[in-house]
Structure formats: C-alpha cells, structure tokens
Write a structure and sequence with these properties.
In chain A, 40% of the residues lie in helices and 13% in strands. Chain A contains 13 helices and twelve strands. Chain B folds into two domains: 151 residues, 3-Layer(aba) Sandwich (Rossmann fold); 177 residues, 3-Layer(aba) Sandwich (Rossmann fold). In chain B, helix 11 links the parallel strand 9 and strand 10. Chain B is globular, with a radius of gyration of 22 Å. Classes of the chains: A alpha/beta (351), B alpha/beta (349).
C-alpha cells in the first residue's frame, strides 16, 4: 500500500532529531498547561502580607486567599475552609493548631521562613499535612546581619553617624569605641547560620566558642557544655539556635551576668530566646555592655527603655530581608507548592 | 560602653610594644638624663587622655592648642622643643618645623603622613615615626562595618524602630545583600589586604588596583581605577594620600561604578572628588556610599544628610580605646628610643 505523501512528510518530520525535539517541547507545553490549570484551582491561604513578589506569583498560579483581607477572620475561614489546600505562613503568622483545625482539606504548609516555631508540627504530622520551609537561601543574609550588628554595636556606627548629621563634629571628636577584631565570639547553636557566622568572625581573628545540644564532630571550635560557661568565656554572645520549648529564655539573668558589663549580646534568633525584661534591666543598669537585637519577645512591640541607649542597635526583624533573598525564599515556597500539587518530591520538607 | 584601661593591653601588638619599650637598655648617662627638661610639643588634643598624661609625666609638655596666638608659645619656647607629637589632624608642616630650630623628632600619632612635611624633615635631619599596623584591624573592621551598614541600611532601620509605632504599620524596606558581591580595593597595602581577607569570608570575589601588581596575591589585578570600578559592585579606597592619588575617585570612576555600586572611603577625604560624589549620590547615579573621611573635615556635605543610602562617620577609623592606647605606647616608645639614642621602633625618615 502506498501511504499518502503527506503522511511520509509528517513521518519524516517526527522521526528526525528536530522532529523529536519539537515533539518533546510540544508535550512539555501541554503538560505545563494542564499543570497550570490543575493548580489554578488549588486554594492557597496566605496568612499575612510578607512579600509582594510572592503574593503576585501565588495570585497568578493558584487561587489565592488572603487572611488579612477580612476583619472577621473566623467567618472568612468558615466560608472558605473547604477550598484551602495549602497555607503559606511566616515568622509572624504561621499555622497554629486552631488554623489547622479549621481547614479540613489542608494538605501542605509551605512556610516563608526557616524558623518553624509558628507551626504546630505535631498536629501537621498527625493529620498527614506536609510542611516545608526555606533553609539555606537565607543563611548568608542572617549571618551577614549578625556581623553587621556586632560591628554596629561595638563601633557605635549609628550613633557616630547621628553625631555627624547633627553637627556635633564641628565642636569635638566622637568618643572612642571598642574594637571588634580579636574579640572572642560565642555562638549559641552551631547550625547553618551559626557556622556561617563563625566563618565570618574567624576572618576578623575572633576565637570562636559554641554551645549546642551536642558537640559537633566537624567543628574546630571550642565546645562549651552549658550556655553559662559559653557566656563566661566570650565577649560577644550570638543567639543562632532554633526556638523550641527548651531554648525559650535560654539567655536568662544568669547568662547575662556571666556575659558581664563588657559583654555584648547579639540576637538574630527569636525574641523569646531571651528573657527580655532581664535584658532590658541589665542594659539600663550597665550590667551588660551592649546588645544588637533583630528580634523581640512581642514584635512589633519593643521595650522603650532601650530607645535612649547608645550601646544597643535595634532592628525590625530584617534578618533575611534583602531583595535577592526574599525572592529566593518565595521561589522556594512556590516550588514546594508546585511539587506537592504535581505529586513530585518536596524540595525542602520538614514533615 | 565602659572599657577598662587594662583591656587595651589585649591588643595583639601592645604586649610586644610594652616589652620592647621596657627592655630598652639604659646607659648610665641616660639614667641620669632629666627627661622632664625635654620640650615636647603636642599639636592638638588626642584621645584617650592617656597619651597627654604620659607625655606630661615624662617630658616638659607644651600644648599647642592652649595658645590661640601660636607665636605666644613658639617665641619663648622654640629653643626647648626637641619633639613634636602630631596626628592626622595637625601634624608638622613647613611653617612649624621652621619655627623649631632644635626639633629632632616628629612622632606621629597616626599612620597617615600627609600632614607632615617629610621633605623638610629629611633636609633638616629630623626623624619621623608613625604608628603603622596597629590601626590595620580597626580600619579594616570599619570598612566592612560601613559596607554592611550601607547595604543593609542598619542606621535607617534602627531609626525606624526607635520611632516606635512606625513598625506596627508596616515592615522596613528590603535592602541589598552583601555576601557574594564583588569588592574592588584601591591600594592593597596592610589595610587593603585586611579588608580583602574579611570580605573573602563573605564569599566576595576580590580585585584590586595598585601602583603595581602584587606578586604574592591571588586577587585579580586591574591596571586602572576605572577598570576596577567597572568590574566591582563595592569599591573601597584604602591607599595612602599622595599628589597622585588626590581625587583618584573622580566623575569617570563614579560613573563606572554606577547606580548599583557602593563607594567606601576609609582613606582620606581628598581621595574623592567630593562635589562629584555628592551630585552622583543625590542624582542616583551612584547606589550608595560609606564615608569615614571628607575633604574639609570636620565639615561634611549637608546635601548627603537626608539620604538613606549613605553612612557618614566622623573619621573614626582607628578610634577604639584598645588601638589608641597601643598607638600612644608606640609614640612614647619611639620618643624614648630617640632620647636614649636607641633604634627607633617605627621610623619613616
């Protein structure tokens, strides 16, 4: 039988390397369209404003519901609870027990953070709800900020800048501050962020000590089996561990006293790591040399007694708030959601 | 914050300086030497008070700033003054040197020598000493501190927080990451090298411009400042100030650095064409700047005061108590070595 010539042309076209490539691209486009259609209907609840880029992308790819759109959150959840398959939370508002209970079809919590203290992980595990976070992509920014805070606190950068802008330099020199290089740095929690801080501090000739739940065999730094020992043996104490029930108020009165009137506390962990009233009174009374804080117990509330002090630097939880990192975190959130809804392995699963 | 005087001795070089200082062998005649009769002129107040106190204790100290009419001091005392202790603000210029016929040594409380007429000192056989190395760490730390403060807007965020209710209404703006940005260093001397070492720990690719390529370094060399500026995101000025390096940062270099580039100046104000820098920052042609020095200190361009992409410091490069105390010990050590006819610790001329 003779095949029609058009058939031969099409057969030649599809059996050639170019033809196969075109086929593949066409198939991928079809698959992409089908996937997009599938995901467009998936209800994703965003708990609070966190990144305009993330919000735009979620809007584009899914059926986005914003928890802050409604004053009456309970009603909002009731009306939309069946629709919601995913929650995107962060360090401000995650997925607590109450929220999870109100969402019967919840399949995944994709947190726009590395910290998981705002997610009820136990409940997620019980319900078979997957949880992802954004490790690694923010390590550098947070470590950079820890060093930035230590330098800014010790060298009084902000105060000196204000001194100049307020015209005071014309009448006298700025006072002397204290050196960073060579000061001993103690790190609470030698995970990704703690290790990145240690690497940077070493380049300033700082001897490094650390405390962790257990000694790290690959770390060349001096290990201290208690936080108090660490604080007693360093000049700059950096909080870089995860927030758990055990690490709440890990920096307490005794640790602050051990750090002493020439010691500096840097907190880039979580506010509840530190007993804040004890910290404030130690700073006000001069029992602690200074502090660089990016986090507080009741954000966005900050103890006003700290505002008049020149030996503290106060930031508004900006640890990973650079343009590049925010986008990288958002992309990871989106990639985890897509992977989940397409039945693929999650990129950064926690549960 | 309170820092004990004793803490100064934790400076890595302080113990060495003290050891050398106190081990200087003394001859019988020098033991009898009445150092309190040696006139030492201090050009201006210097922090911490330790240096002035020690000079006063050991020598016949004359304080230049106590005499509004300089001739009031120079006329009656010019024959007594055998040493001048100056710094980066007021050194020993030709006029002062000419007014002091018995001047033997200028011991500078600084590493920069641009305020000393070195040629005149050489002609007159006047020794000059300075305080190298001691300020290297502080200056390098400050370079990194300025970079982080500019890119992460640390001061702006601190002010945002201290205004209290503002944070409740919305977060502070997103800023710019430091890790991984390319750093270009003008002048790869002690301070430039120390900055490079620190920046490498932030995974920053390092490149540099210097009068000549350095054989013992792995960093990428650029034979011109413009090439360096075109190929880095953060440009750091750390070279010494000479007639050749005056205004080494000019309009062309600033344009090459560009609207996303950041300039850090921990060298000297005159390294930068300040008027061009100001207009570039105000017009957005340069991304940001961290400045510890200015062309006409203590004046700083007020057009910059309203910008949040600049950090402005009042020449605090080596202003830590640890380093200043070690510097003071080196000034004292050099003076003592000179008057005991021993080798100077850190001579320039």
């Amino acid at each position: 039988m003779r095949w029609p010539s058009f058939f031969h042309r099409r057969r030649r076209k599809f059996s050639s390397p170019q033809g196969r490539n075109q086929n593949l691209h066409r198939a991928l486009r079809i698959l992409s369209v089908v996937s997009s259609k599938l995901m467009e209907n998936k209800g994703v609840l965003m708990t609070c404003p966190m990144s305009s880029y993330l919000e735009e992308q979620l809007q584009k790819r899914f059926r986005l519901l914003k928890l802050w759109d409604s004053q009456m959150k309970a009603d909002f959840l009731k009306q939309n609870s069946q629709l919601i398959s995913a929650v995107v939370g962060n360090t401000v508002l995650g997925a607590d027990s109450e929220l999870i209970d109100s969402l019967p079809n919840l399949e995944i919590v994709s947190s726009n953070s590395v910290g998981l203290d705002k997610i009820d992980l136990v409940k997620c595990k019980e319900r078979g709800i997957r949880v992802t976070n954004t490790p690694d992509v923010l390590t550098d920014d947070v470590a950079d900020l820890a060093i930035g805070l230590a330098l800014a606190t010790l060298r009084k950068i902000s105060v000196a800048d204000g001194f100049l802008r307020n015209g005071l330099w014309k009448n006298s020199d700025f006072g002397l501050t204290t050196k960073f290089s060579g000061k001993s740095v103690g790190i609470l929690g030698l995970g990704r962020i703690g290790s990145a801080i240690a690497k940077r501090a070493k380049a300033f000739g700082c001897p490094i000590g650390y405390h962790s739940r257990s000694r790290k065999p690959n770390a060349n730094y001096k290990y201290y089996s208690s936080v108090i020992d660490l604080a007693a043996n360093c000049q700059i104490l950096v909080v870089a561990c995860a927030l758990t029930d055990e690490t709440r108020h890990i920096v307490n009165r005794e640790v602050i006293d051990a750090l002493g009137p020439e010691g500096i506390l840097i907190n880039i962990g979580r506010g509840p790591h530190v007993d804040e009233p004890e910290l404030v009174s130690a700073l006000v009374e001069g029992r602690l040399g200074g502090a660089g804080l990016d986090v507080y117990e009741n954000e966005p509330e900050i103890p006003e007694k700290l505002f008049q002090l020149q030996n503290v630097v106060l930031l508004s939880h900006v640890g990973s708030d650079t343009v590049a990192t925010c986008k990288a975190m958002a992309d990871l959130v989106l990639a985890n959601l897509e992977a989940h809804f397409l039945g693929k392995p999650l990129l950064t699963p926690v549960v | 914050m309170p820092t004990k005087r004793e803490d100064a001795s934790t400076h890595p070089l302080a113990s060495t300086i003290k050891l050398v200082f106190h081990c200087l062998p003394q001859t019988a005649s020098s033991k009898k030497m009445d150092s309190n009769s040696i006139g030492v002129l201090m050009t201006c107040p210097m922090s911490p008070p330790y240096l002035e106190q020690e000079l006063d204790r050991r020598y016949r100290l004359l304080r230049f700033w106590k005499f509004p009419q300089k001739t009031e001091l120079l006329k009656p005392h010019s024959q007594e003054i055998r040493a001048v202790v100056g710094n980066a603000t007021i050194g020993a210029n030709a006029e002062l040197i000419d007014a002091l016929p018995k001047l033997e040594i200028v011991s500078s409380y600084s590493v920069g020598l641009d305020k000393i007429d070195l040629a005149k000192c050489k002609d007159r056989g006047i020794k000059v000493t300075y305080t190298p190395d001691l300020i290297t760490d502080d200056a390098a730390d400050l370079g990194i501190a300025l970079i982080l403060a500019v890119l992460r807007k640390i001061r702006g965020c601190d002010l945002f927080v201290r205004r209290g209710p503002v944070w409740k209404n919305g977060d502070f703006q997103l800023t710019s990451k430091f890790t991984g940005k390319s750093v270009g260093i003008i002048g790869l001397g002690r301070i430039g090298t120390a900055i490079a070492k620190r920046a490498e720990a932030f995974d920053c690719p390092i490149s540099y411009y210097s009068r000549s390529e350095k054989a013992d370094t792995n960093y990428k060399y650029y034979p011109s400042v413009i090439d360096l500026a075109s190929n880095c995101q953060i440009l750091v000025v750390t070279c010494s100030l000479t007639p050749e390096t005056r205004h080494i940062i000019n309009r062309e270099v600033i344009d090459a650095l560009g609207p996303k580039g950041v300039l850090i100046n921990i060298g000297r104000g005159p390294h930068v064409d300040e008027a061009e820098l100001v207009s570039a920052l105000v017009e957005g042609r340069l991304g940001g700047a961290g400045l510890d020095v200015f062309e006409n200190e203590p004046e700083a361009p007020e057009e910059l005061f309203g910008l949040d992409n600049v950090v402005l410091l009042p020449h605090v490069g080596s202003g830590t108590i640890e380093t200043r105390t070690a510097m003071a010990d080196l000034v004292l050590g050099n003076l003592e070595a000179h008057f005991l006819n021993k080798p100077l610790l850190t001579p320039v001329v």
